[in-house]
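TA notes, week 10

Several of you asked for a full example with nothing omitted. So below is the full record: structure tokens for the whole chain, then the designed sequence directly under it. When grading your own attempts, check the secondary structure regions first.
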């Protein structure tokens, strides 16, 4: 019995869905564009919120950690200043890099009772006003409020309208620690 002749080899044809896609004359491209724009915006929004939460957590951890130097009197006995405190904060927030020095503001105040602990807003005309922050770490037994403000530039245009609390598409992140200084003596 003779074998049937096979046709000469030809180029492989694309899979079925690709042939149907190529023949389809509907609005696939338009539909994809309409769906992808909100999807990409949502994706960038989720990424931005994640970064904001990460910066906020870093700020809170650094505030708690570095404020311990005030609480124990280590900063006061070493003659520490607002600049040395801010440098220690930026060292704790190391992954934020060089932007920390310009984006971070620190406010340290002392009080006589915990019920009196209040502080004014550091914001004037949509920006952190350096004249509204002070640095008074106090003496042994004083009640101290440490507030740290970090200015973060938002990068998602649609979300910045809802997230910004400063002008120019920026958000001020805040961390606060309140405590009573431990007994220590300043030489």
């Amino acid at each position: 019995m003779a074998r049937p002749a096979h046709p000469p080899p030809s180029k492989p044809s694309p899979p079925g869905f690709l042939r149907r896609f190529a023949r389809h004359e509907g609005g696939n491209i338009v539909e994809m564009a309409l769906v992808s724009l909100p999807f990409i915006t949502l994706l960038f929004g989720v990424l931005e919120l994640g970064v904001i939460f990460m910066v906020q957590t870093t700020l809170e951890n650094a505030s708690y950690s570095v404020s311990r130097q005030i609480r124990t009197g280590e900063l006061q006995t070493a003659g520490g200043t607002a600049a040395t405190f801010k440098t220690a904060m930026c060292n704790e927030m190391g992954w934020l890099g060089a932007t920390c020095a310009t984006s971070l503001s620190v406010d340290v105040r002392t009080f006589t009772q915990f019920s009196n602990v209040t502080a004014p807003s550091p914001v004037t005309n949509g920006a952190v006003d350096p004249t509204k922050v002070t640095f008074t770490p106090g003496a042994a037994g004083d009640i101290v409020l440490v507030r740290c403000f970090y200015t973060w530039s938002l990068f998602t245009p649609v979300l910045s309208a809802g997230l910004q609390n400063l002008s120019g598409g920026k958000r001020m992140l805040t961390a606060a620690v309140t405590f009573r200084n431990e007994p220590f003596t300043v030489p």
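The mean pLDDT is 87. Use that as a sanity check on your answer.
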